[in-house]
Amino acid sequence: MKPEKAIEYCLQKNGAYDDYPFGLDVTVIKVKGKIFAQFFKLNGINMATFNCDRMTGEFYRNQYRDIVVRGYHCPSVQQPYFNTLPIENSLEDDVIKDMIDHSYERVVSKLPKYVRNELDL
């Protein structure tokens, strides 16, 4: 999946918006101030990092051993809760969309109920 298409898919989520807190080279997608996706280049390769729960993260890392790794840029204590992968020419679009959906739902589920209600979910 091209990064532009993945970003576009992320931005279709209720309340999602792009931000650049780490500079213009990293596109961060947030909902209510919380990050659920990051897109960046690493050694010339388009990469993405998505939030996940520990079990889902392990599932994707086991299923796609040579592609999906623990959160590349995260502190070691947070790595089990993030997956990093090359976004382009690595996995089927549906798998990437599932990862995005899971990340969004995980982040939204941790928001206070009154904030979730504002999203009209």
Overall description:
With 121 residues, the protein is an alpha+beta fold. It has helices spanning 3-11, 54-63, 93-109, 113-118, and strands at residues 16-19, 27-31, 34-42, 45-51, 69-70, 82-86. A 6-stranded antiparallel sheet has the order 1-2-3-4-6-5. A hairpin with a 2-residue loop joins strand 2 (27-31) and strand 3 (34-42). The chain is globular, with a radius of gyration of 14 Å. The model has no long low-confidence stretch (mean pLDDT 92).
SSE blueprint:
Layout: H1 3-11, E1 16-19, E2 27-31, E3 34-42, E4 45-51, H2 54-63, E5 69-70, E6 82-86, H3 93-109, H4 113-118
Antiparallel strand pairs: 1-2, 2-3, 3-4, 4-6, 5-6
Name the descriptors.
121 residues; alpha+beta; 4 helices; 6 strands; 35% helix; globular
Give a short summary of the structure:
This protein has four helices and six strands; from the N terminus they run αββββαββαα. The protein is α+β, with helices and mostly antiparallel strands and 121 residues long.
State the distance separating the first and last CA atoms.
26 Å
Q: Write down the overall mean pLDDT.
A: 92
Runs in which pLDDT lies below 50 for 5 or more consecutive residues are none
Q: How many β-strand runs?
A: 6
Spell the H/E element sequence: HEEEEHEEHH
Could you give the order of strands across the largest sheet?
Answer: 1-2-3-4-6-5
Shape field: globular
Approximate helicity band: 25-40%
The percentage of residues in β strands lies in 25-35%
Structural class call reads alpha+beta
Characterize the largest beta sheet: strand count, sense, and whether it forms a barrel: 6 strands, antiparallel
Query: Gyration radius, to the nearest Å?
Result: 14 Å
State the helix count: 4
Instruction: Give the assembly state of these chains.
Output: single chain
